[in-house]
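tokens incoming
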């Protein structure tokens, strides 16, 4: 297709395009997650517009309805994708053939979906009891709605199970565009449910939107997936004995990560159970605050983690230790470098950001202050969880997921113990926030210690990075001071009671923080700045989107 001087590529061919550079892959995932999170911000703003001011209880039920389906999904799909599926799939690609790799992938996908469906069918008669345990603080109307919403969320999670396994296959084949667009489709489906369906169907409209979003998540990948598997499946070469051996090894590798995710789900479900006893809207406020906290984590840390994990797995499979250490060193340095200014902005601008993003006319000032306070308490999660993502990918690539289990066990134990101690003394959502924050810090330090203790070679990467960490910390402290001063100046120049004024205050602080952070980093010659800048410079963006006619 052409228009004027430009020729637009076929969208199907664009979805099928491969990206062999780690940076290009990271950039595509980064941009897609950025847009997905921006859609998530729009979604949360719509939540406060449509459901706060009297219907918070429905939004509480909506969040609670994800717990059982998401627990099944996390245990049966997420726990095994990275720990069991990718190492075997990569090994078959390197040592055997694409045909055998895709045979394994197909059998695995159908096996997991079958197990997922079987558990759902067998557990269905017990859902009322399970949901009553999950949300004992809900009243009769809330429990009835919870039972109505849950089947739709189960259906959506089942579709996402197949879709996310497809994501991993495409990423292993250096196709990052289709997987990158999937979260956008998911959020668009939920937004459609809020704006179009919820006025008529109330909270059920949200559930319909989740199902539509999951279908979009899957369908956007089909063109690339068909190209990848075309002609590569030959199940006649895959004997029952080989299937049995592969599946046994698959579940054996996945067991430690399965137990780790199980502990995470115990923590999340325990959090939901306790939140239902608090004032109406507490569960929603906690989720809305967590979504904002996750913005800097997902915008960079998860993007880099998704892009780098297949490379770490292949480096380990090829026993390329030098490459593995280099990837780890680059990952932790760039993560710390990017997360630091984002953390500064959240420290200084937490209240204006909450008011600007969530402050609809139904979202009261009290809700704004509580949400900002939750963010203030959980700020350590941003840095701890961002670096923990890299630690976890390294553990999984090395086949050491048992260390993730150990770190998560003590994190969950810390969280449960703190809730039992804090809630009787302060029965508010802030007690849950404190428990979440301290548990994340415990997990970060323990995971880092276990990683270095079990892998002495990785200590070289940490030692090489110490000077860079010190420089970034120094620059961060100076930038934080300047950001705070610019925030005070902005408050004196603009009236923060108006949305436009909030925008100008946030813009002023953002410009000052960015300019000071980048200029000081340049002056101190902080290496991640130059490595990122050089990769941006050599990136051939023009040929990726438009081609000028010669």
């Amino acid at each position: 297709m052409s228009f004027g001087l430009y020729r637009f590529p076929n969208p199907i061919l664009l979805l099928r395009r491969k990206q062999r550079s780690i940076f290009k892959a990271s950039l595509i995932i980064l941009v897609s997650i950025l847009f997905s999170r921006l859609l998530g911000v729009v979604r949360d703003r719509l939540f406060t517009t449509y459901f706060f001011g009297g219907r918070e209880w429905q939004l509480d039920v909506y969040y609670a309805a994800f717990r059982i389906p998401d627990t099944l999904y996390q245990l049966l799909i997420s726990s095994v994708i990275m720990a069991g599926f990718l190492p075997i799939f990569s090994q078959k690609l390197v040592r055997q053939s694409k045909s055998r790799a895709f045979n394994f992938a197909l059998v695995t996908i159908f096996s997991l979906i079958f197990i997922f469906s079987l558990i759902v069918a067998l557990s269905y008669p017990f859902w009322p009891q399970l949901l009553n345990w999950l949300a004992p603080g809900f009243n009769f109307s809330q429990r009835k709605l919870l039972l109505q919403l849950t089947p739709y969320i189960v259906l959506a999670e089942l579709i996402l199970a197949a879709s996310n396994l497809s994501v991993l296959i495409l990423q292993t084949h250096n196709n990052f565009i289709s997987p990158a667009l999937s979260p956008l489709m998911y959020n668009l489906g939920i937004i459609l449910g809020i704006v179009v369906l919820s006025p008529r169907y109330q909270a059920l409209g949200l559930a319909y939107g989740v199902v539509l979003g999951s279908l979009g998540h899957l369908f956007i990948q089909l063109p690339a997936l068909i190209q990848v598997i075309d002609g590569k499946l030959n199940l006649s070469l895959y004997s029952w004995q080989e299937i049995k051996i592969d599946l046994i090894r698959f579940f054996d590798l996945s067991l430690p990560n399965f137990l780790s995710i199980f502990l995470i789900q115990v923590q999340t479900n325990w959090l939901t159970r306790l939140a239902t006893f608090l004032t109406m809207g507490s569960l929603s406020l906690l989720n809305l605050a967590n979504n904002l906290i996750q913005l800097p984590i997902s915008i960079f840390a998860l993007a880099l983690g998704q892009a780098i994990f297949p490379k770490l797995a292949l480096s380990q499979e090829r026993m390329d230790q030098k490459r593995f250490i280099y990837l780890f060193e680059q990952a932790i340095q760039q993560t710390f470098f990017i997360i630091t200014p984002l953390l500064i902005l959240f420290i200084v601008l937490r209240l204006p950001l909450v008011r600007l993003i969530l402050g609809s006319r139904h979202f009261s000032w009290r809700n704004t202050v509580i949400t900002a306070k939750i963010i203030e308490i959980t700020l350590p999660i941003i840095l701890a969880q961002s670096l923990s993502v890299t630690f976890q990918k390294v553990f999984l690539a090395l086949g050491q997921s048992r260390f993730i289990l150990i770190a998560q066990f003590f994190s969950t134990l810390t969280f449960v113990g703190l809730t039992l101690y804090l809630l009787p003394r302060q029965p508010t959502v802030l007690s849950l926030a404190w428990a979440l924050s301290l548990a994340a810090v415990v997990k970060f330090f323990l995971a880092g210690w276990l990683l270095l203790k079990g892998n002495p070679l990785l200590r070289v990467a940490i030692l090489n990075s110490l000077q860079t960490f010190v420089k970034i910390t120094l620059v961060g402290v100076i930038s934080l001071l300047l950001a705070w001063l610019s925030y005070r100046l902005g408050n004196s120049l603009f009236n923060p009671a108006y949305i436009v004024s909030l925008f100008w205050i946030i813009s002023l602080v953002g410009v000052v923080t960015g300019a000071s952070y980048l200029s000081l980093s340049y002056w101190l010659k902080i290496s991640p700045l130059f490595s990122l800048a050089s990769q941006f410079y050599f990136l051939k963006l023009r040929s990726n989107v438009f081609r000028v006619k010669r």
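note: The two ends are 16 Å apart (CA to CA).
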